[in-house]
Amino acid sequence: MQEAVIVEAVRTPVGRRNGLLSETRPDELAAKVLKEAATRGGLSPEHVEDVIMGCVSQIGEQALNIGRVAALIADYPTEVPGTTIDRQCGSSQQAVHFAAQAIASGDMDVVVAAGVENMSRVPMGSTYKGTERSEELTSRYEMINQGLSAERIAEKWGMSRQQLDEFSLESHERALQAQQEGLFEKEIMPLEVTTPEGERTTVRDDSGPRKGSSLEKLGSLKPAFQEDGVIHPGNSSQISDGAAALVLMSRDKAEKLGLNPRFRILARSVVGSDPTMMLTGPIPATEKVLKKAGLSIHDIDTYEVNEAFAPVPLAWLKETGADPKKLNPHGGAIALGHPLGASGARLMTTMVHELERTGGRYGLQTMCEGGGMANATIIERLN
C-alpha cells in the first residue's frame, strides 16, 4: 500500500456567530482555504485528483455539493472533482480519512481534504426544519439533544459544575496565551472580509477566546438544557464560522513533485457508540486507533479532543489515563469555536503545527459526533 502523507495544513481564523466572518459566503470561504492550501504547499491544482469537503448543514449557500463549488471558485481546473460529506462534527476529520484511504489503496495520489461551516449564514439544524425523527428510530433509541447527553456524561462520571467550569476557563486561558505568543500565526491564513458594519478589514485571529473570564462569571450563567443542570454556554463549544484544508499525497508523489512530506497518517478508526450518550465515542475510538498503531496513550505527544462540551474531554481523560497537560495545549472548541464541518480539519491543522513547533513525534485527534459516532486519527511527524 502507498503511504499517505500530509504536505500542507492551513485554516482560516474562526469567527464568532454573527461576527467578522458572517458576511462571507461559506462556498467562498472554503474556496479561499483551498487556494491557500495549494499555494502554501507548492502544489499546482492540476495535480489534485479529488476535493473531499466536510460540511454538516448542506442547505442554502452550503448546498449543491459545496466541495465541488468551492474548488471551482478556487480556480482549480474543471477536471478536478469534489464531493461533500457529513459525519456530523467529525465531517472533515472523516474527509482526511477518506483521502488517506484513497491514497493508500492506490486509487489516487493527491487529494485535498477540507471542511467548512458558516453557522451565522446557515444555522445549525436548518437542514432538519419541518420534519421529525422516524418512529422506527425513536422506538428503538432515546434520541435526545446533545446538551442533555453532556448532562448525562457529567452525571455518570461524577463531574461537578465547578470542575467543568475550571476546564472551560483553562481552555480560554490556553487559547489566549497561544494568541499572545503568536502560536497560531503559521496555521492561520489572514482573511480580508467585510464586517457586518460594512467595513473592510483583515482578520488574523480567532475571535472566540474571551479575556477577563473567571469562575465567578461562568458560575453566573444559567444551565442551557435542564433546569438543575451543569451545562451552560460557558462550558459548551461556541457556534462559529470557519474553514480548513489539508493537502494529502502519496509519499512517492510528494517526492516526485519535490514537495515536503511533513506527516504520515499512521492509523485511523471510526466507531459507532450509544446514540443517547452520543458524546462518548472518542473513548472506544481512541482505544481502537492506538491498537491499530501499536502504541499506548503515553507514546502520544499531543492530543486534540474536540471540546463539544466540557464533560467530553474530561470523561476521555478519565477513561484513557492521558496526560491533561498534553490535551488541547492551546485550548479547544470552548474557547476557539466549533464550526461544525470545519472542526475536524481545524483540529488536525492545529495538531500538525504544534508537533512541528515542539518537535513531537505522534499526535492523536478524536471527536464525538451526532448520533453516537467518533473518529480517531494518529499522525507521525516525518522531519
Distance between the termini: 21 Å
Instruction: Give the C-alpha Rg.
Output: 19 Å
The biggest beta sheet reads:
10 strands, mixed
Outline type: globular
Structural class: alpha+beta
CATH superfamily of the domain at 266-378: Thiolase/Chalcone synthase
CATH architecture of the domain at 266-378: 3-Layer(aba) Sandwich
Helix content: 25-40%
H/I helix tally = 12
Reading off the top of the CATH hierarchy, the class of the domain at 266-378 is best stated as Alpha Beta
> Roughly what fraction of the amino acids lie in strands?
15-25%
What is the succession of H and E elements?
EEHEHEHEHHHEEHEHEHEHHHEE
Number of strands: 12
Low-confidence segments: none
CATH topology of the domain at 266-378: Peroxisomal Thiolase, Chain A, domain 1
Mean pLDDT rating: 97
Summarize the structure.
With 383 residues, the chain is of the alpha+beta class. It has twelve helices and twelve strands. The protein has a domain at 266-378: Peroxisomal Thiolase, Chain A, domain 1 (3-Layer(aba) Sandwich), CATH 3.40.47.10.
